[in-house]
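Before relying on records like the one below, remember that each one covers exactly one chain. Contacts with other chains, cofactors or solvent are not represented anywhere in the record.
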Amino acid sequence: MKTAVMKELYSFLQHQNRYGSEQEFVDDLKNMWFGLYSRGKEEGDSSGFEHVFSGEVKKGKVTGFHNWIRFYLQEKEGLVDYYSYILDGPWDSYPDVLAMQFNWDGYYKEVGSAFIGSSPEFEFALYSLCFIARPGKVCQLSLGGYPLAIRTYTWDNSTYGNGKKEKRKKTGRDPHISKQ
């Protein structure tokens, strides 16, 4: 919350009457990102933060793993084998968007997308905005004058409002980024 981008996000959401106080916003972010949900039959075995920023394996395939810094560090350690990119966004500077295929510690990711060159707080703020504003839907945005879509998903078995926090529409997980 000490970063400019998170302060800007809070200010925007407060002006939209989504939050009455910064503490309410912080509490919601903690629950949204670190509240547990089930990837399958297990009870509370994952979180939005783990899925988006760290990546996870479900049914033998990589899911999530949308953070370029984690990707870089895992590749540097020899745990990620980058195969190819499917989409390179239209931006001439950073952040950019890249959709790619890779193998992570023996598990395949058919198509994964991530911002490249952005700060973690930028990604955290942008994904949070989309989770709050468009739960379980496509969040249409403009970045540097180009259209961008981030897809969020809600989960039924979640500690975050049971996956369906209807009050003020604050729920969601798993951003999928694409150029429109």
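The longest strand covers residues 107-116.
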